[in-house]
Design brief:
The chain is an all-alpha fold. It is built from 15 helices and no strands.
Length: about 325
């Protein structure tokens, strides 16, 4: 299956491309003992993250994590996955922001610029390598989303298959259960695409910074600023959305719609909306809230187009200015 998926990629993005294999093979192979210690560290970190998620979900073991299996899974997995997603975005920036500085340090940048298509190939392969290097974390994020989607499909079978009828009853605007199910399908698609498009855009922005700021010291400073800005945005949207859901923040309906959409797009990549109980509360409390899934799908598509534009701009600037 993996070979079929990668077979749809451009030649330069496939693992069997010689330059891609060189890019991914530049990291020095660790001794077996170091690999075992690294694997143990990853396992320990995973246990701490998901153990912490369970502690938070149960209020330090005082309450059950949720009223049903889907809600319990979301309560336990939300915080660990949010941390993983922020780490992925930071890693995407870190893996690309020093690209040009590294090539100059190896005295290979001038040769690449003098070779037809050399800059384009180098930058695009570095961008694609981010997905390969973060494939483990990306797999965790996507697999958990698939499990939550299966949870939604299972929940929809409640009340003899009439659960969706109850959820869309009384919301604004009035829609049929069939349209509600279709809008849910848009949300589920968007939740699977957003991790991919968000990661790609972060990597592309890192490459653009590497072209603009070609000295390693300044590119590292840009990385620190980018990490701070990205984390601050995610935290601010999370706090705002939490305050609104808990009734501590009163804002007009259009602002509430934009707040929840921004939270889903930039903070948790639509993960919270895969909790059908939570998402249905938004339908009931915010007019046209059920269309947030469509908005997120359009956002993912636009984010993909923006990634291609940023990559093209980075290549043009690199070829023009060096």
């Amino acid at each position: 299956m993996l070979s079929r998926l990668t077979g749809q990629l451009p030649a330069w993005a496939r693992y069997d491309h010689p330059v891609t294999r060189y890019e991914l093979g530049k990291t020095r192979l660790l001794p077996r003992r170091a690999q075992l210690l690294r694997a143990a560290g990853v396992i320990l970190l995973g246990v701490l993250l998901f153990g912490g998620g369970y502690i938070i979900a149960t209020g330090f073991f005082q309450n059950p994590p949720g009223q049903n299996l889907t809600e319990a899974a979301m309560s336990i997995l939300f915080w660990p996955l949010l941390v993983i997603q922020i780490v992925m975005q930071i890693a995407a920036l870190a893996l690309t922001v020093n690209t040009v500085a590294e090539q100059k340090r190896r005295q290979a940048w001038d040769n690449l610029r003098s070779t037809a298509g050399g800059v384009n190939l180098t930058l695009r392969i570095r961008w694609a390598s981010v997905y390969y290097r973060l494939r483990g974390l990306l797999a965790v994020v996507v697999v958990v989303r698939l499990l939550l989607i299966f949870g939604i499909l299972y929940d929809l079978t409640a009340f003899q298959g009439k659960y969706i009828d109850l959820l869309v009853n009384g919301i604004t605007p009035e829609i049929s259960p069939l349209v509600g199910a279709l809008l849910l399908a848009f949300l589920m698609t968007a939740s699977l695409l957003l991790p991919l498009t968000s990661l790609g855009l972060s990597a592309a922005i890192g490459l653009l910074f590497s072209v603009w700021i070609q000295q390693r010291t300044y590119s590292t400073l840009a990385l620190i600023v980018g990490i701070f800005a990205r984390t601050a945005l995610a935290v601010a949207l999370l706090i705002g959305a939490t305050q609104f859901i808990q009734g501590r923040l009163t804002i007009p309906d259009p602002a509430a719609w934009l707040l929840m959409g921004g939270f889903a797009a930039f903070s948790d990549w639509g993960m919270s909306f895969l909790n059908l109980g939570f998402f249905s509360e938004i339908w009931a409390s915010i007019p046209f809230g059920i269309f947030l899934g469509v908005a997120l799908l359009l956002f993912a598509i636009l984010q993909s187009a923006l990634t291609e534009w940023v990559l093209t701009l980075a290549v043009r600037l690199a070829e023009r200015n060096g």
